[in-house]
Amino acid sequence: MEANEAKGKVGFAYWKKIVILLCAGWVTIWIYRSALSPVYPQIRESLGGNVSDTALGSISSFYFLGYVIMQIPAGFLVDKIGKKKVLIPGFIVFGIAAALISQAQSLGMIYAGSLLAGLGCGSFYGSAYSLTSQNIPKEKKSFSTAIVNSGSAVGSGLGMILSSFLVAQQGLPWQTMMYISVIMIICMIFAFQAIIRNNKEDIEALKQQELNVVSEETENVQAASEKVSFTKLFAPKMLFTYLLYFATCYAYYMTVTWLPNFLGTERGFEGAAIGFSSSLVAFASIPGALFFSKLADKYMHKKVSFIIILELLAAAMLLLTVQANTSTFLLVALISYGFLGKLAVEPIIISWLGENAPQVGVGTTLGVFNFFGMMSSVIAPTLTGSISDSTGSKVMGFYIAVILLVVGTLLFLLANIKKKTNS
Taking the model in full, what pTM does it have? Predict the structure, then answer.
């Protein structure tokens, strides 16, 4: 009896550490991701001043191109060799990339560093959510996933605030944020090494706790290695889920990349106010994610309804953001978009996906899902920059994001209505 209780405590301690560790991982990644967009004017000035918005937006696009390229390969590697062996080398590459950008003397060097950073960070998604899937108790999965995801909101907010304050307001070099990122990445590498079990330790610990997760995961890995059914993986229900996630990510990454610049150049915000206002989207998403994921865990049969309602409301708030004629109205719309948007709905989509996806290996399924979503992050920054160069405004970029959200949501609704009709 006492032995079993001791084992239970060990298991609980480990999954709790995993949640905290992965949350910190997202904080680190997102401080880096959000650090450059608020200081695009300073980057332009350091490169001689003759740099277009399209070229600046491409900094983010190169990062996400590398990130997208790594999704499916990283998913397969997670299933084949383990999370730790994928995650740590990925973060080493990430650290090298941030250091390279800090020393960049040309836009091409920044692009190269951004691409390399994306490749390194691409190791994180499949590793992280394979760890949560394997170690977190089923009844706590959605809420725990929301806590992990909240790291991206905290990192995004901190990155924007620190970048705007230290660089735009205090006048420090824009490379300062890259130095901060390198230090944080090194700390995370040591934390991954200290906390995450290797494959043999993980399997042995799970056997001792008499969990069924090991056998389920082993079956999934074997299925992935023997035969992946692309027919099931890209069935209409799954395909429309990928498209919905594409639209969700498009709106979010377009906003994260260009909102600071939009507020500064088109809405009259200055200095630290730009970073603070932009960070409202990130910080408002934390209570939204925790609240709606808790609600989705309670009413598990209503997940599709939650997804559809949240997506449509997020589209409405994004529309109100660009149509707002006062600063107060704009900030209320931004807070509402953060509360209802990507980080609030993503844990529910991931949970729904886990219940409906074909059993082909956790890492593989998540890799394909995130590949589709993150493709939008390659397109959105550059396309919005190009629109800004052509029209002198980024408003049309926001409208495109709203249209994609509405269309993606309606397709997802259609797929699930057909499923109910067929059943």
Answer: 0.73
